[in-house]
Amino acid sequence: MTQVSKHAESADTAARAERRWGAISVAIIAMLVVMAAYAGIHQAVMPQARVETADPGTLHIAGEFIESNLGSAMEPDGSVTVRAIGQQYSFTPQCIVVPTDTPVTIRATSADALHGFLIQGTNVNTMLVPGYVSAVTTRFTKPGDHAMPCHEFCGAGHEGMWGRVRVVEKAAFLQAAASQRRQSCVAQ
Ligand code: CUA
């Protein structure tokens, strides 16, 4: 074999390796696009198109987030909806009560600044953005208390902005729901 043909052969090998790696990279990118699309379509992520709005200036006067409507409500389909507000520097209700083994949808918004909404020991972790409703659906398996800190710096009192989530047995929740339209565990 001459020097020239040896050189041509190694250049050819290198080009084939390049093409192979190029194809693998394209395949990885295509797989990520498919995964992102799948998660979006199945609502595993929350695309901006699903955004709902709530005017922070009138939260306390009218609409879904007036004070008498905050707390945990039984729905006709057997699920529970929790409505809450974050404001500098507390959550309302300060203590959220939810039953075990029940689909729970939390709907919350902010009355002023950007706040974080995180329930420790669960995968609930979102932001409360003034003007928008954050909705998260989850399910709690065991009774117990979870800390609910604001995890987004929202001003001088941020460090003190904590709430609590109390998970109670479903039977106890249902019993209380029979006499109360909205439940919370504030002052309990
Ligand atoms: Cu609210 Cu930090």
Give a short overview:
The protein is of the alpha+beta class.
Word description of this protein:
The chain has 188 residues and is α+β, with helices and mostly antiparallel strands. Helices cover 26% and strands 31% of the residues. The chain contains two helices and eleven strands. It has helices at 3-41, 170-179, and strands at residues 52-53, 71-74, 80-87, 90-92, 95-99, 103-110, 115-118, 125-128, 132-139, 144-149, 162-168. Strands 1, 2, 3, 4, 6 and 9 form a six-stranded mixed beta sheet that branches. The chain has a three-stranded mixed beta sheet with strand order 5-11-10. The protein has a two-stranded antiparallel ribbon with strand order 7-8. A hairpin with a 5-residue loop joins β2 (71-74) and β3 (80-87). The longest helix has 39 residues, at 3-41. It is elongated and about 95 Å long. The mean pLDDT is 91. Dinuclear copper ion binds next to β7.
Give the SSE layout:
Elements lengths: L2 H39 L10 E2 L17 E4 L5 E8 L2 E3 L2 E5 L3 E8 L4 E4 L6 E4 L3 E8 L4 E6 L12 E7 L1 H10 L9
Shape: elongated
Strand content: 25-35%
Distance between the termini: 90 Å
Q: Into which percent range does the helicity of residues fall? A: 25-40%
Give a quick account of the main beta sheet: strands, pairing sense, barrel closure: 6 strands, mixed
Q: How big is the Rg?
A: 25 Å
Bound molecules: dinuclear copper ion
The count of β-strands is 11
Class based on secondary structure composition and strand pairing: alpha+beta
| Topology order in helix (H) and strand (E) letters | HEEEEEEEEEEEH
Count of DSSP-assigned helices: 2
Mean pLDDT: 91
Low-confidence stretches: none
